[in-house]
């Protein structure tokens, strides 16, 4: 089954950056840390013209125009990078030194005097350099003999060695945000020494070794064709720099290693091993924690977008997405991940891109090679270069894109196969609140629909009976994000048959397991383990109400589904000691009343499933005509709150129950402060003279206790009621009360 690119969840940026393509006169460099694109071409016999384009709005440079300056032509440029404040440019022309140029301001004029710094270690070769996050301009040299950390003083145009570490190095990987360098060593390049670079410091963590696959001797030729590498010690292929990356997933740093295998029956396969690095505030060794299983081999590239690992396959022109936070099979040591969708999808052009592309000013003559139209560029071109986390550069076409994830397309592909897995995946994506709510609504519709789902939802149709546990699982995930204390995630519901983990048409994961060393489990032995991860933009209680519950159901079945959702969400929140907002309870009460489930409502209130609150109490008061006991439920709720005495008094007086109001005021110690005329007015208007007499007498007794006299004061505004009492019961009765 082939899918069109319009269905893809991974799309290239709407407006690509356009630049002068690579040619004999033009070189292009990209700094993934600062997102700067450098175009270098010869200006004259003695100088080079450098144009800098920034690819993100957060850069100190102006993202709306190119910034140009000239450098002396002192040889071929291998690399160039700006410091964090864009005031020092580092240029590498040789393998033994790096040159530096000062700038007055970010994007300002360049200094005419350059200065350089060679390696301190004799005979060392510079493999690369990186600006660190230190505030005092520190630059790190990575050489084949180790690390050298220099402090740059631009005012003096000098550098000072502040720290060094000896370590044989074949090549290295760098992660700027984590300030971590991974140095590869050994004859197979599979031994790694991790260094944490801080302010004038180098901290080394214990070295570890990456296990490499053994290639069958009869398949070495096909192995080289698939992997593109030579065979080293013991028939194992040496690890290549392009097959290793450092990436941060859900706040945790990982070293990723692409391992290419040759299948005994022919063909190739790949797995990506993730080695979790210890956090900065904890001790420990790196450990192999996750394995991304790919049934295809060949030339691959990796991108990290929204905590998804995208593996791009050039020959198939498809991209596979992995999410390590989703439930995965585990043997107790490793978690084995399959792509999140059954079918790999190609990268897709965004529609707006075909109409308009971002073009920054370019210097040069009209005879220079012009950038190609983005829509006409071949996808997965041989000239594509991937930069972590999410950048693709086509130097020959003169285009730079960022990859973005479309949660709506991801939902459309995942939901029919496994709604629970789909909701978990959407829950972890940024800017996916609407899509998560839509998936929940779609699941509710499966519960209430009397007609069978569409053909596209064939698997979902088979799992209608499992919608309830899937909904409960999704609501548990939402509640877990609101809990201040992290806790274990809920166990995922079983996926509906056929299993969405069967990605190969003629191969099962267990068949491939024997190649990669993955343990083979029976159905009873399989375990599913989720990685605790904080969602970047979780669906809150307010969001759930606005996007899912605010629109009133139309049928009784929809009301029942709404009641189930709210009760499950309340249960999940209560399990994690998260306060439930009153509007969820209000919606629950209305749904129960609409469907005539008054007995259930009564029980939920009595057993405190519905928490006490003034809004709920007021809502219950309004239901007295439909369910008379709701009135007493409301009063009991207000009494338990302890902060609704005024409301209870008003309710009792509005019903003419003055004696009940007096008893209540005495029970809460508020009788001495209530206005006398307020009680007498209600008693008089009721027409019950016995009640009027009792209230009048109680107030006179209060006067006698507080003032020493039973008489009312003019400030009490009770003259009318005193006269009515005397007229009804006689002056003698009034005098007897005053004598008390």
From TrEMBL:
InterPro entries: RMC1, RMC1_C, RMC1_N
PANTHER family associated with the record: COLON CANCER-ASSOCIATED PROTEIN MIC1, REGULATOR OF MON1-CCZ1 COMPLEX
A Pfam match: RMC1_N
Signal peptide: none
Cellular component terms per the entry's GO annotation: late endosome membrane; lysosomal membrane; Mon1-Ccz1 complex
Domain Mic1 per the UniProt entry, residue ranges: 530-713
Residue intervals of the Regulator of MON1-CCZ1 complex N-terminal domain: 28-159
GO annotation, biological process: regulation of autophagy
Protein name according to UniProt: Mic1 domain-containing protein
Domain of life per record: Eukaryota
Region of interest called Disordered, as start-end residue ranges on this chain: 351-373
């Amino acid at each position: 089954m082939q899918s069109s690119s319009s269905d893809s969840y991974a799309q290239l940026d709407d407006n690509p950056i356009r630049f002068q393509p690579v040619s004999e006169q033009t070189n292009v460099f990209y700094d993934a840390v600062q997102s700067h694109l450098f175009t270098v071409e010869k200006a004259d016999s003695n100088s080079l013209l450098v144009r800098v384009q920034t690819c993100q709005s957060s850069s100190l440079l102006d993202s709306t125009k190119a910034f140009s300056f000239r450098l002396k032509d002192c040889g071929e440029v291998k690399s160039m990078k700006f410091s964090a404040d864009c005031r020092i440019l580092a240029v590498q022309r040789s393998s033994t030194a790096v040159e530096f140029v000062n700038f007055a301001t970010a994007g300002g004029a360049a200094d005419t005097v350059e200065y350089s710094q060679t390696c301190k270690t004799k005979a060392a070769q510079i493999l690369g350099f990186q600006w660190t996050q230190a505030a005092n301009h520190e630059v790190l040299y990575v050489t084949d003999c180790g690390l050298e950390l220099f402090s740059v003083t631009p005012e003096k145009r000098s550098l000072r060695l502040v720290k060094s570490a000896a370590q044989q190095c074949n090549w290295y990987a760098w992660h700027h945000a984590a300030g971590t360098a991974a140095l590869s060593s050994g004859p197979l390049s599979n031994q790694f020494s991790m260094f944490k670079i801080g302010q004038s410091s180098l901290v080394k963590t214990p070295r570890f070794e990456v296990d490499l696959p053994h290639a069958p001797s009869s398949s070495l030729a096909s192995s080289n064709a698939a992997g593109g590498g030579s065979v080293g010690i013991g028939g194992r292929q040496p690890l290549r720099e392009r097959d290793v990356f450092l990436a941060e997933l859900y706040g945790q740093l990982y070293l990723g290693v692409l391992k290419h295998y040759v299948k005994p029956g022919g063909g190739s396969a790949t797995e990506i091993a993730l080695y979790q690095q210890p956090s900065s505030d904890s001790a420990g060794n790196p450990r192999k924690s996750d394995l991304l299983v790919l049934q295809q081999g060949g030339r691959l590239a990796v991108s990290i977008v929204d905590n998804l690992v995208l593996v791009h396959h050039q020959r198939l022109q498809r991209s596979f997405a992995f999410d390590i936070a989703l439930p995965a099979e585990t043997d107790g040591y490793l978690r084995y991940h399959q792509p999140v969708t059954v079918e790999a999808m190609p990268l897709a052009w965004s529609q707006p891109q075909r109409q308009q592309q971002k073009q920054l000013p370019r210097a040069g003559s009209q005879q220079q090679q012009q950038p190609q139209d983005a829509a006409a560029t071949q996808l997965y071109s041989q000239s594509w270069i991937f930069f972590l986390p999410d950048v693709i550069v086509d130097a020959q076409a003169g285009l730079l894109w960022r990859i973005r994830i479309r949660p709506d397309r991801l939902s459309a592909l995942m939901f029919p196969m496994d709604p629970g897995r789909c909701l978990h995946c959407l829950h972890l994506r940024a800017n996916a609140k609407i899509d998560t709510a839509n998936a929940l609504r779609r699941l509710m519709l499966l519960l209430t629909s009397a007609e069978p789902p569409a053909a596209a939802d064939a698997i979902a149709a088979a799992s209608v009976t499992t919608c309830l546990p899937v909904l409960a699982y999704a609501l548990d995930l939402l509640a877990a994000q609101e809990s201040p204390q992290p806790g274990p995630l809920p166990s995922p519901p079983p996926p509906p048959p056929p299993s969405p983990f069967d990605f190969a048409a003629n191969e099962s994961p267990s068949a491939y397991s024997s190649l990669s060393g993955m343990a083979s489990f029976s159905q009873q032995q399989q375990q599913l383990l989720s990685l605790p991860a904080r969602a970047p933009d979780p669906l809150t209680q307010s969001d759930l109400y606005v996007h899912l519950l605010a629109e009133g159901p139309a049928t009784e079945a929809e009301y029942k589904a709404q009641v189930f959702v709210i009760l499950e969400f309340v249960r999940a929140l209560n399990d994690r000691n998260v306060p439930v907002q009153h509007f969820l309870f209000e919606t629950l009460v209305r749904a129960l009343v609409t469907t005539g489930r008054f007995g259930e409502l009564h029980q939920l209130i009595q057993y405190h499933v519905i928490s006490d609150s003034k809004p709920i109490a007021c809502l219950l008061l309004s239901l007295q005509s439909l369910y008379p006991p709701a009135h007493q439920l409301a009063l009991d709720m207000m009494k338990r709150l302890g902060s609704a005495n005024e409301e209870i008094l008003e309710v009792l007086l509005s019903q003419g129950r003055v004696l009940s109001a007096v008893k209540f005021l005495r029970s809460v110690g508020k009788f001495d402060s209530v206005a006398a005329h307020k009680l007498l007015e209600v008693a008089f208007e009721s027409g019950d003279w016995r009640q009027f007499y009792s209230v009048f007498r109680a107030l006179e007794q209060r006067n006698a206790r507080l003032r020493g006299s039973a008489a009312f004061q003019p400030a009490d505004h009770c003259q009318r009621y005193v006269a009515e009492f005397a007229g009804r019961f006689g002056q003698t009765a009034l005098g007897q009360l005053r004598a008390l």
